[in-house]
Design a protein that fits this description.
heterodimer, A: 409 residues, mainly alpha, 3 domains, 20 helices, disordered C terminus, B: alpha+beta, 5 helices, 56% helix
């Protein structure tokens, strides 16, 4: 099979969100059509290169065709969107205090946390059962599932009174995981990590350290240098947490495409950042508890509900990227505005250092997405199963389609 | 306008082709182009959404068949529902064509009743 034909089929496949057997059948039918068309053109005196180009031109634009076929074979959009936003809705319900209101604080919080993990597992299992692979609409659930990892990891605060050995275990764990990941990546490729990835990592470290400096400065601590040094372990811990979504998002990006990896990174980031509760002081500002809860949910809404709807509704990579970045940044900004308004006129009023911290949080979010994209490009996408099947067909002695064999079987 | 008309007629053309005998996608595209002397030569890829749509609506069935030389082919054949829809659509197109021509003053010009 020519490279042009393989690329053309990949472009069609990129727009299909159907079960693998349907996908293989659709691609086999199109491949057979194109190969027959090319053979006819060659019989009529065209060169191999000309017949490939002409056959593809006559067939039409690949992505548009993929979209048309997807509309016929895929689930209705509202079903996929419904599955995709289910974990986000559950998380927001927990953040809005619905479970606590129904069952009391202790049981409500437990239901919120364990239930959220259960909903994520349910969405992922439903995707697997339905499509026999990781369904695109289950990616947000994977991202939210990382919240569980975050909850169960030993919490390390920046409490300088703690002895180092109490802080050390998670740091050692992170160091071991990081070293192993780096060593595996190095061995797998045998090449050096691209300079851009190093530069982004350096920027990440700088932004994490910089986000701690404002609090030290605003404390007016006479021993600033000591205070900053004491925060280094916490900075490393925080850095590890921020990079965790990248490490987990990359396999998704490799197997399912970059937007999938970015969704996971974005969903994990928002929960690790704790953006679902941006307005802890909002009740100082208003006595209306319902209004306070509704306002508190706005940033979470921008992060967990809008991006899945946007990304699933948009098939072009550029549109999907905007769908991930824009609502998330709006979520970050709205979190800052809500917090700023809530704390206005109080003893812990929002100052320049708070705004700086929020700007750095936004920068960290963007850096994480860019880092995922850079590393993904470096390691390259995993060869698609569909492409392997197609190669299998074209290399067969009688060129009999594997799909056709599967159908007959 | 001409493009819209041709696009709108794709379903009935496919049904008409398959009324004669079962065919596979490439064969339908080639026959259609040949019989209409190139007039109905739309992008070949758009044939498949139309075929799959007709199959989903129960107007066609499909089956993979092994051939001696070359890749296996997916043959489409008309169902009974497909024949009924083809008959109704052919009648609609004929009526549309007659009435349009009568207004344009071309072809037969007898008054249209009803």
């Amino acid at each position: 099979m020519s490279e042009e034909l393989a690329r053309y089929l990949r472009d069609i496949a990129s727009q299909l969100d159907v079960d693998p057997s349907s996908e293989r059948e659709i691609l086999a039918e199109i491949q057979n059509h194109l190969q027959e068309s090319m053979a006819d053109l060659e019989e009529h005196g065209r060169s191999r290169k000309e017949s490939v180009a002409l056959a593809l031109e006559r067939f039409g634009e690949a992505r548009e065709l993929g979209r048309m076929l997807n509309r016929l074979h895929g689930d209705p959009p509202w079903v996929r969107v419904g599955w995709a936003i289910l974990p986000g809705l559950f998380a927001l319900a927990g953040a809005a205090g619905l479970f606590s209101a129904a069952w009391g604080v202790n049981i409500g919080e437990a239901v919120g946390r364990i239930g959220l993990l259960g909903v994520c597992v349910l969405v992922i299992a439903a995707g697997w059962a339905k499509e026999r692979r990781l369904a695109v609409w289950s990616y947000p659930a994977w991202g939210v599932l990382l919240y569980g990892v975050w909850l169960w990891l030993p919490w390390v605060s920046a409490d300088q009174a703690r002895p180092f050995w109490q802080v050390a275990p998670p740091l050692v764990m992170l160091a071991v995981i990081g070293a192993y990941a780096g060593y595996s990546a190095y061995r797998a490729r045998g090449i050096r990590i691209p300079p851009l990835a190093w530069a982004l990592l350096a920027l990440m470290i700088l932004s994490v350290v910089a986000s701690l400096v404002p609090s030290v400065v605003s404390d007016q601590n006479p021993h600033r240098r000591t205070a900053i040094l004491a925060m280094i372990p916490f900075s490393l811990w925080w850095m590890g947490l921020l990079l965790l979504p990248v490490v987990i998002g990359l396999p998704f990006a490799r197997s399912q495409g970059l937007p999938a990896g970015l969704i996971v990174v974005a969903a994990a980031y928002v929960l690790v950042e704790g953006l679902l509760d941006p307005a802890y002081g909002i009740l100082i500002w208003t006595s209306n508890a319902s209004a306070a809860r509704a306002l508190a949910c706005l940033p979470g809404l921008a992060f967990l509900i809008v991006p899945p709807i946007w990304v699933l509704g948009c098939r072009a990579a550029k549109g999907q990227t905007w769908g991930l970045v824009l609502p998330a940044l709006l979520g970050l900004v709205s979190a800052s505005v809500v917090r700023g308004a809530a704390l206005q006129g109080t003893a812990i009023a929002y100052g320049a250092d708070s705004w700086l911290r929020d700007c750095l949080a936004g920068a960290q979010f963007l850096l994480l997405l860019v880092l995922t994209a850079v590393v993904y490009r470096w390691i390259g996408p995993r060869p698609a199963q569909g492409a392997k099947d197609m190669d299998c067909r074209s290399s067969g002695s009688q060129s009999l389609g594997c799909v056709a064999n599967e159908q007959r079987a | 306008m001409e493009k819209d008309l041709r696009r709108g007629s794709a379903r009935v053309l496919i049904l008409a082709m398959l009324a004669e005998k079962p065919m596979y996608g490439y064969q339908i595209a080639k026959e259609l182009k040949h019989r209409s002397k190139g007039y109905f030569a739309f992008k070949e890829g758009t044939l498949y959404p139309a075929l799959h749509g007709l199959e989903k609506d129960g107007l066609l069935t499909s089956q993979w068949e092994v051939v001696d030389k070359g890749p296996s082919r997916k043959y489409y054949r008309l169902t009974e529902d497909g024949r009924r829809v083809l008959s109704a659509s052919a009648e609609e197109w004929a009526t549309f064509s007659r009435r349009l021509l009568s207004i344009l003053g071309e072809g037969r010009t007898e008054p249209v009743s009803g």
